Amino acid sequence: MARPLEGLRVLDLSRVLAGPFAGRMLSDLGADVVKLEPPEGDVTRGWGDVRHGISGYYTQQNAGKRAVCIDLDHPKGREAVHALAAHADILIENFRPGVMARHGIAWPDLAPVNPRLIMLSISGFGQDGPEASRAAYASVLHAESGLVARQAELDGHAATDPVLSIADMNAGLHGLVAVLSAVVQRERSGRGQHIDLAMLDVMLVTDDYANFALDEIPLVRGGGEVWDAPGGPMMVTGDFRFVWRELVRRHGVIDPTPQGASLAQKIRCRREATQAWFLSFGDRAGLVAALDRSNIAWGDVRSNAEAYASPTAQARAVAAEVADRGGGTRRVVQSPYRFSRAESGVAGAPAYKGEHNREVLAEWGGLSPGAIEAFEKDGVLIAEEKP
Length: 387
Fold this sequence. Notes:
Layout: E1 9-12, H1 18-28, E2 32-37, E3 50-51, E4 54-55, H2 56-62, E5 66-69, H3 77-85, E6 90-93, H4 99-102, H5 107-110, E7 118-123, H6 138-144, H7 147-155, H8 166-189, E8 194-198, H9 199-206, H10 217-220, E9 224-227, E10 234-237, H11 240-251, H12 263-279, H13 284-293, E11 297-300, H14 304-308, H15 311-315, E12 319-323, E13 329-333, H16 357-363, H17 369-378
Helix pairs in contact: 1-8, 8-9
């Protein structure tokens, strides 16, 4: 079966996570994605476990893409980018606003070159707002959107940043939705367009508790809670009052609260009884069966490695192996799309910086071997030596 986006060409100028993640998903869906890097390369090429010159972090977000390396500071760098953009369907960038214009490759520069081009610009605070020039990483947007402060208030501890790059990943996903929407519109109108995606907007629209007061959130979110259980800790999700009622109604747990107890005493006594009930089972299977009969949602508290070994992750082939460019393989996480009439998934190994300079400029840009060689001699095109 074919991949849904076969035939689409994507020029990916983005770095680190939000843009590269969107590009990786487009590649998994069948688009021909070419990653364009500056001479120093994407900073993530050095993040994490580096094997044969390519890191695991870079591999996860850029597997399946071809790679070209163009010096945008060179006077002829603009010419090389224009040659590629003229034949691209989509361009992704997440530079700070103003950087693309400085190099002569902003939307007003490229739209006349290719009226069908769709450009996705991901930034922290938008392309032209009062804070557009600010540097923005995921942690900055976690703080600016209220997430960090709210979590600190709810949990009663000092403000800390989440361990996941929520702003980046959500920006990549919303960017993907926007790009594909623009592709559909282009089919009707014949024209491309510029998409201005601000990570602050993304974080605020992702906030499903924005209209609740702080003291209402614990009541409506049915927050998960970890309990000691046979075989290891277990996450149980739902308002504790619901869990307690189910234990009393379905499992005969006796309320140990003494007569005349305060609300705080009542909660403490019932929680102690609940914990004792969890630990009363001889094995985890018995506890799971009891929770399932009560329709109480539960989850194993797994390590990252254990998550990939779970029955569902194994059955759905969540992890894939790609070549590590040294004769071995390394793991990447598959895109989550499962189609009934199409294929999807990681398209191949990660590329070395500038590995596909010649073939992409010839194939996309229509440049002659002589023109490409001239770019190489001038230092516009740079190819990394493979280890």
